[in-house]
Amino acid sequence: MKKLLATLALGLSLGLGVFGTASVATAQTAPAAVTATAEAKPAEAAAPAAAPAAAAPAAAEAAPVPVPNKADTGWMMLSTILVILMVIPGLALFYGGLVRSKNMLSVLMQVVVTFSLITVLWFVYGYSLAFTEGNAFIGGFDRLFMKGIWDNVAGTFANAATFSKGVVIPEISFAAFQATFAGITCALIVGAFAERIKFSAVLAFMVLWFTFSYLPVAHMVWFWMGPDAYASKEVVDEMTSKAGLLWQWGALDFAGGTVVHINAAVAGLVGAFMVGKRVGYGRESMAPHSLTLTMVGASLLWVGWFGFNAGSALEANGFAALAFINTLIATAGAVLAWCVGEALMRGKASMLGAASGAVAGLVAITPAAGNVGLGGALIIGFIGGFACLWGVNGLKKMLGADDSLDVFGVHGVGGIVGALLTGVFNSPSLGGPSAMGDWVTMTMITPDAYSIAAQVWTQAKAVLLTIVWSGVVSVVAFKIVDLTIGLRVTEEEEREGLDISSHGESAYHG
Hints:
CATH superfamily: Ammonium transporter AmtB like domains
Largest sheet: 2 strands, antiparallel
CATH topology: Ammonium transporter fold
Shape: globular
Mean pLDDT: 90
Strand content: under 5%
Helix content: 55-70%
Number of domains: 1
């Protein structure tokens, strides 16, 4: 216990050390400033957006101060609860059922404690570095320890921008929603090196990776100054230059294809290589110990994912409804695709395959949820199902890594497929809502002006940057942890099972 506490203290000090090293190109100058995040798309539909919205120009100072709509606020709180459901118990049970019984509790612990750790770090410094104005790669320090959320002088809460002009939500509701995104992203990684890593090593790695990979990628993809900042054509270039790098490029990521799934999958794959294969891998049976629990976990993931995707509209509006139904139809399509693929390959469709297909569809539709029409969502689901089936079979063998629970095969492959196809089916000529062409007048790119090739290229650049960024950070982070506390347990402890050797308890008795 003393060793674990010492490790946590070391990890926190490493994470907090970023305070003195991160560079900030610009600082917020207006106390009432509100930031936001999104992709270049409809004001009502984009990736999880923002923090405090940019101050209105002097000419509009007399305009009424926006007041949060209670329905929007309630929807954001419900969506946050749904994402928590995805992690605890959804992801925990999905992963837990897939490992051997002697490692059940270790996986549950890694998921629950990782989520808790990241939630704390999020409110200490993570939110500020992801969603306040800084430079194209990282935010600033205006919200350290969530300072400024409550205005003691005015006696009011700060508001956050959405994707509609003059529409806001309480900033604390946005911060809580985004905390769950950070938490589940880190929790996803543990599936890649399950059954052989030290518990203390997991936590130390998460502090480093969250600080230097998740936060910069989230800022690059989702941070912008909000629709109200685009008050006139004269300020467009200035406002855009303050956004995250990938937002400036025009990359579309409605709810986390790059930020969450590709980011986590690359970290997991690196971990699978650097931690090494499980003892007996390829020679001994390592079949899931409870597909029943895996099915329960997958079902909870599907239910919770409606908050994950539809909540990313930040308003209870049509784009939330679009993301909602796309999450339903794409996932159903992926389940069918996986089952068909398995039947063709092996002659039988399995329960594990159906559950995996559901997760594959959820992953693939995430970046596209509010960015494509229903037909596009169904196609993305089908392609995502088949692609991820290949990812956990053919690609996994090609890579040769012991990715225990197929984190890269599902989240990496599914995230890449979804991100690229978003650029295709966002096209209005293919039933998509198109992207925002002018934030000043709130007009969309017309069908004849939309270029599928150009948008897919932008999506591909975003995917490649995320892969490289997460890959480099992961290698360095795992190496630091290996040199300081070591990555994996001894062979004796691994054979005994991590439930007993790492936590002194057992999931099952008798």
